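User: I want to check something. If I give you two sequences, will you return the structure for each one separately, not as a complex?

Assistant: Yes, each is folded on its own. Here is the first sequence with its structure:
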Amino acid sequence: VQLVESGGGSVQAGGSLRLSCQASGKPGCMGWFRQRPGAEREGVAAVFPGAGVTYYADSVKGRFTISRDAKNTISLQMNSLKSDDTALYYCATNAANFVFWGQGTQVTVS
């Protein structure tokens, strides 16, 4: 499985950004993680295949929305961004008992 991310960038607090991640192969659950400066990587949002059940970290509930299309592309719409959302965001998926990661995309909120 390969993951190709796009989106990210710099925005002022209160603004919005959209991240996308396209997966090749047969991904399972897909989601976004982030690593803030000086912190461990943490889960942000995930979407399961099939029924499309979603999961959100408490810190982003009501502000971020994850979606998945039939071609295994996921998007993360991020609204009302805060400086605490500044991080390197990674797309990830599990397949064949492995976890695959994207290269990461920077989100900076000032």
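And separately, the second sequence with its own structure:
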Amino acid sequence: QVQLVESGGGLVQAGGSLRLPCAAPGRSFSAYVIGWFRQAPGKEREFVAAITGRRTNTYYEDSVKGRFTISRDNSKNTVFLQMNSLKPEDTAVYYCKQQGVWGQGTQVTVSS
């Protein structure tokens, strides 16, 4: 079964940056789309960004376009979410997902 492990979360001031890796060790990674989602307190989990397999097409939720970048390193079975110009409303637990499997999440907190 797929295992996904997120890291890189933390506390950052508004306008700052964070880079979230999601590792998928020991599995076939490169052929499948992988996505990032987030869930803020009291809200539904929402889509943030996704990247397809070998063609690496990318997709973003409107509020993060131009600020967040998703990329993948298939040699390391890892996908990255680079988050720039962070806003307090980006505060959430961030999850990666592939083939119906979720990681455990990593907390991102943006202070104003």
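Because they were folded independently, the notes below concern the second chain alone. DSSP finds no helices and eleven strands in the chain. Residues 13 and 111 are 5 Å apart (CA to CA).
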